[in-house]
Amino acid sequence: MSLYTQSQFGPAASALQPYADKGDYRAQLILGMAYLQKDFKDDAKSVHYFKLAADQGDVDAMYFLGRAYLDGKGVPQNTTIGESYLTKASEAGSIAALRELGNRHADFYRESNSSVEALKAIQYYEKAFLLGEGSAALMISSTYGSGSISDKYSAAVWNAVFQLTKTSQKTTDAFQLLPVAQRDKAMMDSYALYSKYSSLKPAKSFLDKVRKYRKPAE
Q: Which end of the chain is more exposed for a tag (fewer CB within 10 A), N or C?
C-alpha cells in the first residue's frame, strides 16, 4: 500500500475504505494505523478498525487494540481488557506484544522489587528474543542487573548476547565485572544463546505487511 508508506493517509483511507467495509482485515488494520497518524488522527476510528481486524484474528490489530485500552485512547481506559488483547497477540507470536508485556512487568518490578514480576518480564523478553527481537537481550540483562533477583552472571551473559546481535563479533567487555574463573563459561553461554537467535529468520515488522498488501479481487 504505497499511499500509506508515502504518508498519504487521506488518499490511503479513501482507497482502503471499500475493502475494509467488505471485511478485508488487512485493509481494516491499515486504516486503523492511518487514523493513528499525527495529521490524520482519530482515535475512535482507529479503535473501530482495529477491533474489526482483531475479531478476525489479526495479531497486529490485537496489539494496537490492547495499547488503546491501556492508554485510554479511543476507548475508556481498561487495563484488564488491554492486557487481555496483548496476551492474545503475544500467544500468537507478536513481538511487539511480548515486548510491551515484558516492559509492563519490568516497570512493576522496579516499583515493587517483586521477583515474581521480574521473572514474568524475563519470560516475555526471552520469547521475544527467540522470535528475533535482539534488543530483548538487553532488557533481560537490565532486569537481571538489579533488585531482588540481581544476578551479575546472567546480566553479563545477556549483555554479551545483545552485543553479538549488533556486531556478530567476539566480545569480552560484558564479562569484565565477573570473576576470571567464570568468564570462559559466560562466553560459551552467550554464544549458545546467540546461536539460537542467529539461526532465526529476521523478524517481520508491521510495515512489511503494509508493503505487501494487495487489494482483493473484485
A: C
